[in-house]
Amino acid sequence: MLTANLVADPRLLNEYLDYHATQFEKWSKVSDGFFNAQFQQLLLYRNGRQLMLVISIRKHKSLDKLNTKTTENNPRVDGWNTRMKKYQEGISGTSPGEVWV
Predict the structure, then answer these.
(1) d(C-alpha 95, C-alpha 15), whole Å
(2) CA dist., res. 46 & res. 48, Å (int)
(3) Cβ–Cβ under 8 Å, residues 66 and 38
(4) Cα(56)–Cα(62) distance, integer angstroms
(5) What's the pLDDT at 67?
(6) Within its chain, how far is the Cα of 18 from the centroid?
(7) Is the pLDDT of residue 36 over 90?
(8) How far apart are CA 17 and CA 67, in angstroms?
């Protein structure tokens, strides 16, 4: 389970939600990256500005190792991740530049 915040800007929040509403049509390679990483399930919840990301993986596997497979031979995922950084920030107590913890 990972958490991050959305930036405190209503316009950017709406952009973020729009990207996710059309993700499977316009950014289908992102879900291919999750498949490549062998994620069993990926759930995203939002409470106000706070995001909660739940990633289910196989027993005895490492999220750090599997996560690198999301971008392997898949530059579209890199583009998505770069774009999403505009909308996300770390929760209180994270280091500068640290987003998902």
Answers:
(1) 25
(2) 6
(3) yes
(4) 11
(5) 86
(6) 15
(7) no
(8) 23
Range 49-78 average pLDDT: 90
DSSP string, 27-81: -HHHHHHHHHTT-SEEEEEEETTEEEEEEE--TT--HHHHHGGGTTT-HHHHHHH
* CA distance linking residue 46 with residue 50, whole number of Å: 6
Q: Provide the CATH number for the domain around residue 12.
A: 3.30.70
Say if residue 55's pLDDT is above 90: yes
Per the structure, the count of domains in the chain is 1
Give whole-number Cα distances, 69 to 1, 29, 47, in Å: 18, 13, 29
Separation of alpha carbons 38 and 36, rounded Å = 5
Q: Quote the domain boundaries for residue 19.
A: 2-89
Whether 98 is covered by a domain: the verdict is no
Q: Given a cut of 90, is residue 83 above it in pLDDT?
A: yes
What type of residue sits at position 91? I
Average pLDDT, the chain: 92
Half-sphere exposure of residue 87: CA atoms within 13 angstroms, side-chain side: 19
